[in-house]
Amino acid sequence: MRLHFVPIIPNILSCFGKVQMNSEKEKTSFFGFGQLRFVIGTILFLAAGLKAYQLSTVPLPPPVQNSVFTPLLEFLNNRYLLMFVVESEILFALFLFSGIGRQWTWFFSLVGFFAFLIVSAIKGLSGENSCGCFGVVTINPWITATFDLIIVILLIIFREHCPFNLNLRLNLSKWEKQKFLLIAVIWIVLAVPALLSMLSLKQVHAILGTEMTTSAGTKKIVLEPATWKGKEFPLIARFTQPADGEILKQGTWTILLIHSDCPKCRKLISDKENQNNTNIALVEIPSSSTEDLPKISFPVFKLDENNEWFAVTPCIIVITDGICVSITENP
Fold this sequence. Notes:
This protein has helices at residues 8-13, 23-57, 70-76, 79-98, 102-126, 141-157, 174-200, 263-274, and strands at 209-213, 219-223, 252-259, 280-285, 300-302, 308-310, 315-320, 323-329. By secondary structure, it is an alpha/beta fold. The chain has 2 domains: 8-200, no CATH class; 209-329, Glutaredoxin. Strands 5-4-3-7-8 form a 5-stranded mixed sheet, covered by helices on one side. Residues 1-30 have low confidence and may be disordered.
């Protein structure tokens, strides 16, 4: 009697074209991925559409600061990189729906969602409020990281026989060539208007001012509010609690940029309090002073104490829907 054992290592190596899978296994694998590819394609289309809408309508929020991953997050937050991602997601989703090159689409799906998993985990570790995968729709990075992990596991379960031999030539049938042409036409119809729309939004994110790094590794930041007019109010991301500052992105607000130990600032605060003005907020620059602010009824936000901040105060900044429309220094 001859016993047959299914070796584990050849099964793994088969994914890289070193061991051939029998036709029955290929058929089963194709069936599993044949279902999953429609789910992945739909997700990519949705993500591309929402990111394109964000890039076409609003400035990108700055990434979390003072994280070990901040340089990487700033690179990933580049508008042009995200435009490329949108165009690529649309094209790849079309290939997934078409079924052309199913073995290669499986492989790139696995690589892509593993990369998404890493990025979502990095954003979660950095304290980002949203993964950014779906544009303006806020989703906790740990939720998307979990979802990406599930997709990666399913892709491994429904693995294809990958022709990983650097042979990129595709022997397409007549019907597949027609589908390839159709993909190109649909992609142009969808991608070109999306690209033009994303390029139409001018970058209005303001630069804080002059930043210097000390020998101790801390940053000295000299704020230059005069350069912010017509641009996005840049201090929200630098609040000790950035999520609380989201209310400033809706409607019109008068922001008072102050030092707690500045006599002129304290007088301005009292004057505004006596006028019973609405939609006023204080942004306090950290200082070594132990003086408390006067009792006030409007919200107070404090800048991150990990940096050294310098600015001319008081400064009155009027913002509408998060955009600076008026700046008055030392009124």
